[in-house]
């Protein structure tokens, strides 16, 4: 069952951050969201996460209204936000510990999937930026979410690490089949990762483009030279420049 947003508006005093947003996101979709700063991307993600409520309109997941955060949805932010005093393994187990019980075999399985084996007892400062972000992703995954909400998760990484993380995320998504909603400022990243692309415009925050991304999978960076890629990129650039 999908995530549905029906006529969603969010005002902050006199600022209309989101205006009449209608979206249906099918299960297992990789949706990427692009848009200039301040166009309402994070506001949209926070509403789906249940961290904020709309001024008007409705949000639902599997037909159930979204009223608060839930175990079915986890958010991964730009900063990994690991606890410096905890080991990698304890950081990854943190959400489960808060929920009341830790499934250590699952924690260790996800550590393996994320390529973090051997670093279990390291503290965050002993890990590279890419490893820290993988640990943040692992901490989200061990909650077995149906929906991963990613707010510019790779923006703080250098270009090479970022490319590795993008490939890694696509492999992971293929394995877990979760719905991913992924915010980015990077047009190439949005097109190369997603099944579907939403481009937003600011003041008021509205959807300017909502379309499938017509590239085959598996994706590779060579595809950034394909006519379908360039055609879509040109369209996005003209909307963002408007
Ligand atoms: N808690 C808040 N209080 C007041 N205004 C807010 C609040 N959150 C967001 N806004 C305003 O709503 C608009 C949309 O903000 P939002 O953070 O969703 O944009 P964004 O597209 O995620 O931007 P960025 O790409 O810079 O992260 C902005 O004008 C912002 O100033």
Describe the structure.
This is ABC transporter ATP-binding protein. InterPro entries: AAA+_ATPase, ABC_transporter-like_ATP-bd, ABC_transporter-like_CS, ABC_transporter_ATP-bind, P-loop_NTPase. One of its GO terms (molecular function) is ATP binding. Pfam families: ABC_tran (PF00005). This protein has two domains: 3-72 and 145-241, 3-Layer(aba) Sandwich (Rossmann fold); 80-144. It is 35% helix and 26% strand. It has seven helices and ten strands. It has a six-stranded mixed beta sheet with strand order 6-7-8-3-9-10, sandwiched between helices. α2 (88-99) runs parallel beside α4. It is globular and about 50 Å long. The two termini are 35 Å apart. The mean pLDDT is 94. Residues 12, 15, 17, 35, 37-43, 205 line the site of adenosine-5'-triphosphate.
Layout of helices and strands, plus pairs?
Blueprint lengths: L2 E10 L2 E11 L4 E6 L5 H9 L6 E6 L2 E2 L7 E4 L11 H12 L4 H10 L15 H13 L5 E5 L7 H18 L2 E5 L3 H7 L2 E6 L4 E7 L14 H15 L1
Parallel strand pairs: 3-8, 3-9, 6-7, 7-8
Antiparallel strand pairs: 1-2, 1-4, 4-5, 9-10
Helix pairs in contact: 2-4, 6-7
The structure holds adenosine-5'-triphosphate (ATP).
Protein name: ABC transporter ATP-binding protein
Organism: Acidiphilium acidophilum (Thiobacillus acidophilus)
Family: Belongs to the ABC transporter superfamily.
List keywords for this structure.
2 domains, 242 residues, six-stranded mixed beta sheet, binds adenosine-5'-triphosphate, 26% strand, Rossmann fold, 10 strands
